[in-house]
Amino acid sequence: MAARASTELRADPNLTPMLDLVFQLITFFVLIFNFKSAEIDQNLQLPVVGSARPVETHGQVDLTVLNVNSDGDLMVYGHPVKNIEGYIVRESQSSMLANRMTPADLDEGKELPTTVVIRADRSTPFRMINRIIKSCQDNGFRSFALKAMNKEQ
Description:
Distance between the termini: 82 Å
Radius of gyration: 25 Å
CATH architecture of the domain at 44-50 and 59-146: 2-Layer Sandwich
Order of helices and strands: HHEEEHHEHE
Structural class: alpha/beta
Strand content: 15-25%
CATH class of the domain at 44-50 and 59-146: Alpha Beta
Number of strands: 5
Helix content: 25-40%
């Protein structure tokens, strides 16, 4: 009887292919997730302009989206930013790091290859939008796009 117990075969499943498949699926979904769509504040009432069209990036994909509510507050992921200039400085530093630029490059007249997309509520005072644009220009941003709707929703 002892000989019979030692000859029993055990079949353990090989989990390596299944784990490999699970990790590949996780990687796939992380890579296709669009983080830019989370930046867009859907509560804003954009101005209506008949000639509005999509942002043309001319082959560049680096966009910074700035949402400005009707009170003139800069909104990031649904929360107001108290220090607008500080936020824009951090965004410009991030863009410089991503493009391997230094502040000396900006002093030589180069500009950041990032397009700043400003999504302002239709009742936002112009002075608030101008303040944001001026701060962006002071930090090396030169390409801007103002978002609007081409028809009333």
